[in-house]
Amino acid sequence: MYFWAHFQQNTIDIMNKIVKKEVFSDKVVRLDIEAPLIAKSRKAGHFVMVKVDEHGERIPLTIASSDTEKGTITLVVQNVGRSSAKLCKLNEGDVIEHVVGPLGKATHIENFGTAVCACGGVGTAPMLPIVEALKKAGNKVITVLAARTKDLIILEEQIRQYSDEVIVMTDDGSYGKKGLVTNGVEEIINREKVDICVTIGPAVMMKFVSLLTKKYNVPTVASLNTIMVDGTGMCGACRVTVGGQTKFVCVDGPEFDAHQVDFDQMIARLGAYKDIEAEDNCKAI
Amino acid sequence: MSEDRNAPWRDELRKTIKAKDRTALERVHMNELDPEYRSHNKEEVNQGLTAEQAMKEAQRCIDCANPTCMQGCPVSIDIPGFIKNIERGEFLQAAKVLKNTSALPAVCGRVCPQEVQCEAQCIHVKMGKQAVAIGHLERFAADYERESGKMDIPVCAPSNGIKVGIIGAGPAGLSCAGDLAKLGYDVTVFEALHEVGGVLKYGIPEFRLPNVIVDVEVEVLRKMGVKFITDCLVGKTVTLEDLQAEGFKCFFVASGAGLPNFMNIPGENLINVLSSNEYLTRVNLMDAANPESDTPVFFGKNVAIIGGGNTAMDSVRTAKRLGAKRSMIVYRRSEQEMPARLEEVKHAKEEGVEFMTLHNPIEYIGDEKGRVKQMRLQKMELGEPDASGRRKPVEIPGAIETIDVDMVIVAIGVSPNPIVPSSIKGLEITKWHTIVVNESMQSSIPVVFAGGDIVRGGATVILAMGDGRRAAAGIDAYLQNKK
Ligand SMILES: Cc1cc2nc3c(=O)[nH]c(=O)nc-3n(C[C@H](O)[C@H](O)[C@H](O)COP(=O)(O)OP(=O)(O)OC[C@H]3O[C@@H](n4cnc5c(N)ncnc54)[C@H](O)[C@@H]3O)c2cc1C
Ligand code: FES
């Protein structure tokens, strides 16, 4: 195994080298990182904690895909704060100080029948491996890709590869249909039987998808992106209320039954450090 | 391995001062930073003893023929043996005696609850006097050795090439690693976080245990050939099977008790209600109070800490240092039942921490943005003793008080993190998720040993350290037998 070969030569530092970088927009980049152990053990739904440099914050990022042969994982990073801004600035050949994972529970995948994947903004990146896994499990996969404007639609080509149908929605109508992600989902529900909906994106978006699918009784899974510190169950920074009970997103999740999630509390908690980070302009897409 | 009490030097030393005169000496006072000064920075509060103070304090020990202090020590350190070496000025030798038993004397000298262990059993206490300051002396000898630059790198047996994996780099893991390296094993420590040290790094603050002390111990282990792999969560990044496939023959699970407990009362998920683990990790491990750091932390003005243990004291004193006007301990029993070290309670009081004992939170109330603004407290009184032997707090009906707070830190205990135990098939665990082990720290799976907080629940550094050493002996015996 690649890693152990290095290890035996006593070069035990895992390098986390960026081997490929692609710029999706001025706020979103894709990074392929050398992380052979994580590449080997990760599954759809897993995430990593990344600490970019000495002063970096530990931030959670979902693994969008991996290449076990090359020993790399792919992350899609949106510039929303001090540490993610630094991460977005790194280039091929640069090294990320710390990457640990894979963390969280893997997505529960089975052949549900028809699956709707509703993603907004950078939520598309964590959705990619789920779309792929659902397709491979035999589902009919319909993906709704939504963003504020055309430039923020990412990974469309990769998503199309594993989706039976893709509906693109933009708030301003600059690409695909004009409207919100919920309009796209409702259109599908109204036209055919949907067995499961998976939603990933900004918390407000997931809240409205959840309200919608609840109305139509469509079982829905949401992947939650709370604030985290360690990502291993040690601190409780990531706690949310699900079905009246407190859960730790990093170990009990990140995916939960969306209809049970207290989104309003989650949205409030996401704003816990807004004032402190005000200068960072952390506006979600 | 005890120092010989009948060695001529020691015989002679005993005779230089009469036992009666020794017991008449006053206990030394540890030099401390001024409370007002220190409550605004993270400098270490205790400044240590001078050589002169240490030698004087060492004179107080009468070198009992049957030293009961040793029975109070969870790992039976040869206490008179090291103290008499201090008395005669052989400080490096004193450190050596300590190291025969303890892997981390500079740490234990600072954080052990001496008043309920060795010092509680000191003969002076039985005579109604103050105990010999064993903890201060332990710290003195260990610090002296470190600062002298003559830190002893233990001689390791020739490598036997047998690979042992240690999971978790807290005191249990570090001490096990040290002993196994001495025996010639090829030791690798896997740590989930980006730094080694466990609670010593992410939990216990700088003002009580400077990081450099832990770093020096780790450096010694590296020099002994121990390898450290950080950012590696065993059970997720690699499994024990993966490691076995790579040739690891035995494992020591020392993953601690990292899962914070909450009370499950209304409002506990409001903003600025957080676990002590989160608060201390942000401030200690992530250096969040430093403007250079990307990690944020809220600087509360009215901060309540729930709990009465060391973690609660560390949190409340940290809040004070981050500018809290009011920092309060809210504890449901009385001060007498507090599990924290006496010295921490004393230091907290000197620094202006308020103690609201016999109060228990029942609800947190938030503002329109979901931030905590008030807490409701139920007043308690002490009833009959409970299973722990401490008097049980009972509610005083109707006695409820509401106070303003802008931050609440919950420090009511921790549970073992299930990630490692649940990743090992067939491992026997208790209903509290601790790992079941025998007297040599071996689990239900012969190649898996375990110790520290993952076996005991939240316990102490010295017990974790002792477990690590016992496990090293157990692992060695097991592997040698199998040959
Ligand atoms: C704030 C605070 C103050 C304290 N004060 C005192 C005191 O004054 N005196 C005292 O005696 N005791 C004190 N304690 C308790 C003491 O720190 C613990 O009992 C002791 O650290 C336990 O040691 P350990 O080695 O078992 O575990 P830990 O120190 O918890 O170390 C476990 C390590 O394992 C790592 N780990 C966990 N899971 C994995 C995994 N799957 N893979 C790899 N690594 C993993 C963790 O990240 C951690 O670094 C305090 C505790 C806290 C939290
Ligand atoms: S991030 Fe710390 S417990 Fe989930």
Summarize the structure in short.
Chain A has helices at residues 2-8, 36-41, 82-89, 124-136, 156-162, 181-191, 203-215, 249-252, 263-270; strands at 18-25, 28-34, 47-51, 58-67, 72-78, 98-103, 114-120, 140-147, 165-170, 177-178, 196-200, 220-223, 239-242, 245-248, 255-257. With 285 residues, chain A is of the alpha/beta class.
Number of strands of chain A: 15
Main structural class of chain A: alpha/beta
Number of helices of chain B: 20
Number-wise, the strands of chain B total 15
Strand order in the sheet with the most strands of chain A = 10-9-8-7-11-12-15
- Low-pLDDT runs of chain A: 8-12, 279-285
Q: CATH first level of the largest domain in chain B: which class?
A: Alpha Beta
How far apart are the termini of chain A? 40 Å
Number of structural domains of chain B: 3
Characteristics of this structure?
heterodimer, A: 285 residues, alpha/beta, Elongation Factor Tu (Ef-tu), domain 3, Rossmann fold, seven-stranded mixed sheet, six-stranded antiparallel sheet, 9 helices, 15 strands, 27% helix, globular, disordered C terminus, B: 483 residues, Fumarate Reductase Iron-sulfur Protein, Chain B, domain 2, FAD/NAD(P)-binding domain, 3 domains, five-stranded parallel sheet, binds flavin-adenine dinucleotide, binds FE2/S2 (inorganic) cluster
Describe what this molecule looks like in 3D:
- The complex is a heterodimer of chains A (285) and B (483).
- Chain A is α/β, with parallel strands linked by helices and 285 residues long.
- Chain A folds into 2 domains: 2-103, Beta Barrel (Elongation Factor Tu (Ef-tu), domain 3), CATH 2.40.30.10; 114-270, 3-Layer(aba) Sandwich (Rossmann fold).
- Chain A contains 9 helices and 15 strands.
- Chain A has helices spanning 2-8, 36-41, 82-89, 124-136, 156-162, 181-191, 203-215, 249-252, 263-270, and strands at residues 18-25, 28-34, 47-51, 58-67, 72-78, 98-103, 114-120, 140-147, 165-170, 177-178, 196-200, 220-223, 239-242, 245-248, 255-257.
- In chain A, the strands form 3 sheets. A 7-stranded mixed β-sheet of chain A has the order 10-9-8-7-11-12-15, with helices on both faces. Chain A has a 6-stranded antiparallel β-sheet with strand order 1-2-5-4-3-6.
- In chain A, helix 4 (124-136) packs parallel to helix 5, helix 6 (181-191) packs parallel to helix 7 and helix 7 packs antiparallel against helix 9.
- Chain A starts with a helix and ends in a 15-residue tail after the last helix.
- By secondary structure, chain B is of the alpha/beta class.
- Chain B has 3 domains: 8-148, Fumarate Reductase Iron-sulfur Protein, Chain B, domain 2 (Orthogonal Bundle); 163-258 and 416-482, FAD/NAD(P)-binding domain (3-Layer(bba) Sandwich); 260-410, FAD/NAD(P)-binding domain (3-Layer(bba) Sandwich), CATH 3.50.50.
- Helix content of chain B is 37%, strand content 17%.
- Chain B has 20 helices and 15 strands.
- A 5-stranded parallel β-sheet of chain B has the order 3-2-1-4-15. A 5-stranded parallel β-sheet of chain B has the order 6-13-7-8-9. In chain B, strands 10-11-12 form a 3-stranded antiparallel β-sheet, with no helix packed on it.
- The longest helix of chain B is centred in the C-terminal third of the chain and has 22 residues, at 461-482.
- The model of chain B has no long low-confidence stretch (mean pLDDT 93).
- Classes of the chains: A alpha/beta (285), B alpha/beta (483).
- Bound molecules: flavin-adenine dinucleotide and FE2/S2 (inorganic) cluster (FES).
- FE2/S2 (inorganic) cluster binds at residues 228-231, 233-238, 248, 250 of chain A.
